[in-house]
Amino acid sequence: MRARLTRFANTLSESYWFVPTIMALAALLLAAAMIWLDSHHATGWMDRLPWLYAARPDGARSLLSSIGGSMIGVAGTTFSVTIAAVVYASGQYGPRLLSNFMSDRGNQVTLGTFIATFLYSLVVVRTIRSPGETPGEPGFVPQLAVLVGVLLVLCSIAVLIYFIHHVPSRIHINSVIERIGDRLLAEIDSRFPICLGEPLDDDADDDRVILAFCADATAADAAKRAGVRAEKTGYVQLIDAGAIMEVAGDRGTILRLQYQAGDFVHRGSVLLEASPPEALDDDAEAKLRDAFAVGARRTALQDLRFLIDELVEIAARALSPGVNDPFTANSCLDWLGAALADLARRDLPSRLRADEDGTLRVIAHPVSFAGFVDRAFGALAQYASADALAGKRFIAALGDVALGCDAPARLGVLRGQTRAFRDLADRALVGASRDAVLARADVLLRALAEPDHKRRLRDGQAWMGGSA
To answer: Which residues neighbour 88 within 8 Å (Cβ) at sequence distance 6 or greater?
Structure first.
């Protein structure tokens, strides 16, 4: 249930209607409050300030009618401009970036401001009465409400000026890349070390993992586990780790996750397996199934790969023959390098998770540095290797990652990625461009082969930064 609520909250934050709706309701409440104050003669102080006083009912009615008509027109124009910007951005940078623009808080507040001002004016104007208009009732002009309406117009003008600046700045490619990169770094910072129970040493596999979940399990061993199957088709958007650990501890079972956030499942897919199988009853299966939030698209809630894929998609499009924009690809490589360099300094969680008593409860998907490097640089290698500018920046980004890396195994991953990219560039480039990229790759490989690789890389910072 928590997983579904979290997904619902994320859906609301990415919707284009939620914030304007809240602001519209707030405008209705504000209008009612202002009319109530006016009707209880709380505006006597305004009589001493003639420039605040609405002269006659006709003038107040005309003013609010003008405000309401202009605001609904501006709101329609704002919506049209926003949709045009979204269509342009999704076409240029990729359809998966559409949610980034739909969730933009500035656009939502802008539309909400204009709609709220329109509704406020509409509610207030209907309360204005001229003398003799209603038999037995005196004339009524809500002076304070009219004043607040004028203030809302001034705020709307300020928001309109902000919106005119905001839209082009938001669809600027460097701003798009920066927002994705910032979120990727923030997710890495908050997620590692991740906690789904207490991590165990992976070297304890033979001692802790029961035979039913071992790679050499027989058919008889495999029969000692039961699966929890999905009831929906879509992408796993969120996994409630707490609920899974709670069920595993209460039932005294070991659970093995078959999917992770970002994976696609279909109805009938086995989400996770449990051993012993008799520990799973209908109530436990329902709780475990509810721990998986499945939706129509991938999100960044628990999926670092999604953010990496967004940067890779922008870079791949930029390096396509139809676009041929290596500088945009270089910006993506810079942010990918920064993210992987940050990740290289962190301890990644074990796939074995224990409860507070140290008993193995969950076997999760392994999270490896090599997997993230391949997801980022491996996916872009075929594109960057065919362009000299992107190729040099590709090598420089790998060098930046190496500067934050101490583990020999992770340095080996970077050496392998560099060698693979060198081979691709050797076949894709010709002439001086080929020689320049291969030379940079060779310098990086020599530095990574030395024990003091960080000093050598810092000494070679000139070629790493370069002008690529």
So the answer is: 171
Q: At what angle do helices 388-403 and 326-344 cross, to 10 degrees?
A: 10
Tell me the per-residue pLDDT of 282-301, one tens digit each, with 9 for 90 and over: 888 888 998 898 988 888 88
Q: How far is CA 25 from the centre of its chain?
A: 28
Distance of CA 87 to the CA centre of its chain: 19
d(CA 163, CA 78): 8
**pLDDT-above-90 percentage for the chain:** 29
Strand partners, 265: 234
User: Is pLDDT at 453 greater than 80 in this prediction?
Assistant: no
Asked if the model's pLDDT at residue 374 lies above 60, the reply is yes
Helix (H) / strand (E) element for 238: namely: strand 234-239
pLDDT, tens digit, for every residue of 403-426?
888 888 899 999 999 999 999 999
Cα separation values, 354 from 70, 106, 196, 302, 466, Å? 62, 43, 8, 20, 47
- Residue 419 corresponds to which tokens in the numbers above? 């060698």
Residues with Cβ within 8 Å of residue 149, at least 6 apart in sequence: 63, 64, 67, 117, 120, 121, 124
Q: How far apart are the first and last CA of the chain?
A: 49
Per-residue DSSP letters for 183-195? HHHHHHHHHSS--
Helix and strand element counts for the chain (H, E): 20, 9
| Residue 353: per-residue pLDDT | 81
